[in-house]
Amino acid sequence: MRITPSTHYQYERIKPDDDCMHEECGVFGIYMEDDVYDPAEAAYLGLYALQHRGQESAGIASVVKDDIRLYKGMGLCAEVFKNDLDRLYGGRIAIGHVRYSTTGDSQVLNAQPLVMSYRGGKMAIAHNGNLVNTDVLRKKLEEDGAIFQTTLDTEVMAYLLAKNAKDGMVESIKKMMEVVKGSYALVITTNDTLIGVRDPQGIRPLALGRLDDNFVLASESCAFDTIDAEFIRDVRPGEIVVINKDGFHSYQTSLSLDTALCIFEYVYFARPDSDIDGISVYRARENMGRRLAQAYPVEADLVGGVPDSATPAAVGYAEESGIPFKKALAKNRYVGRTFIQPKQSLRDRAVKLKLNAMKRNVHGKKIILIDDSIVRGTTSRKIVEMLRLAGAREVHMQISSPPVTCPCYFGIDTPSHDQLMGAKNSVEEMRKIIGADTLNFLTKEDLLKTVEGAGCNFCTGCFDGHYPVDIKKACAQTQKLDLTQVFK
Ligand code: 5GP
Ligand code: MG
């Protein structure tokens, strides 16, 4: 039986295999009035720019005349659409999705976008995030006769949308938003309308852009640059944006006072050339490094970063401390997250394949090594060992975020509590396991200062266990809901 976060939360807050449903995703959508681009082509380019958000599957749905065509498959964008992009050409609207998940079963079936027929025609939906009350909802709907084809929370949302479609899509989305709890950045297309939705707390990002008179939606603004679109603004928490032949319309649903954008987007997940909710990801990372340098000064010959995600923080550290930035590790850029091998012997080699010490830079040197996060701790241990074998005299590890102590239920693939090094060990114990001379973490307070001035508050659940939705309560409330009343 598959266990989704909502059920196992009910029984036991933390379960060893609870990472089974967590997904990391990127979404994209475009409405083209002119012929600047074919929308499917723009979606392909946009997804390519969002590839870091998910490498397991990719898909595009395009609205051609009265039909919605779908193409999706396992693998990177370039692999999935190698020969088949042109069958999506010729439309006005396209939406796309890239996904990474650790789910084992029916992987292609669970790839997105999902396309379904409903009484208003056809609809396609792509989702980044994770609902926490899916199981309760799904069970209720199944008792009521619903049949689901996938194990995705996204399909539950699509079903709720279809169920209420008689009042129009916007009303239907509003009703759906009343019952689903958790994180969702959605891109939806019907036969004639592109829609973007962000959950009331804005847990996952969604940006709005424009290409001449055409509108674009994407998880991150870096996707706009790829197609020469211009960033307009972020979709607001709780906002529904609607784009069709009548232009652009926005509907603000009840906005949570306590918005909670995922801070891990800035720490690790997002691309450094993206701006999210008014903050440059690169600038935030650089400031994380600066704050580390202020908090934990160390005498050293060089500052290095674990490529690529920690490079901006290492640059910030170097600038603040006056210690030169130098490459301590080289990265094999052809190793992605796809190198997840079933055999332990191959897995053990993964870090070595991905990273190698720059012997001539580190030999005989005292090194400050910056990484963005310690999750399982396996990477750091191997890296320190690698640097020592290459002749480093001292290795001072500094992490540009606090220890990850709690799993994420909102769409970042953190492992279960058991596998989180920071959940079971003190910093000193972690230092010993990693084998570094010193180990220091940025405090949560300092981390929050690097994103000051953003148009929202932040979820820091992976660092402190304070989640934006009380999962237990949300499930209990959903259990009591009379869905026939909500969807009259
Ligand atoms: P660990 O401590 O689990 O061995 O690995 C920490 C490294 O994993 C850091 O360098 C960080 O950049 C990276 N990392 C952090 N979060 C994620 C994630 O969600 N997925 C992947 N693939 N790497 C991550
Ligand atoms: Mg890294």
TrEMBL record:
Binds 1 Mg(2+) ion per subunit. Binds 1 [4Fe-4S] cluster per subunit. [4Fe-4S] cluster binds at C262, C408, C459, C462. SUPFAM superfamilies: N-terminal nucleophile aminohydrolases (Ntn hydrolases), PRTase-like. Pathway: Purine metabolism; IMP biosynthesis via de novo pathway; N(1)-(5-phospho-D-ribosyl)glycinamide from 5-phospho-alpha-D-ribose 1-diphosphate: step 1/2. Its cofactor is Mg(2+); [4Fe-4S] cluster. Its EC number is 2.4.2.14. InterPro entries: GATase_2_dom (IPR017932), Ntn_hydrolases_N (IPR029055), PRTase-like (IPR029057), PRTase_dom (IPR000836), PurF (IPR005854), PurF_N (IPR035584). The active site is at C25 (nucleophile). Mg(2+) binds at S309, D371, D372. Residues 25-246 form the Glutamine amidotransferase type-2 domain. GO terms for biological process: 'de novo' IMP biosynthetic process; purine nucleobase biosynthetic process. It comes from the Bacteria. GO terms for molecular function: 4 iron, 4 sulfur cluster binding; amidophosphoribosyltransferase activity; magnesium ion binding. Gene3D superfamilies: 3.40.50.2020, Glutamine Phosphoribosylpyrophosphate, subunit 1, domain 1. Keywords: 4Fe-4S, Glutamine amidotransferase, Glycosyltransferase, Iron, Iron-sulfur, Magnesium, Metal-binding, Purine biosynthesis, Transferase. It catalyses: 5-phospho-beta-D-ribosylamine + L-glutamate + diphosphate = 5-phospho-alpha-D-ribose 1-diphosphate + L-glutamine + H2O. Catalyzes the formation of phosphoribosylamine from phosphoribosylpyrophosphate (PRPP) and glutamine. In the C-terminal section; belongs to the purine/pyrimidine phosphoribosyltransferase family. This is Amidophosphoribosyltransferase. It comes from Guopingia tenuis.
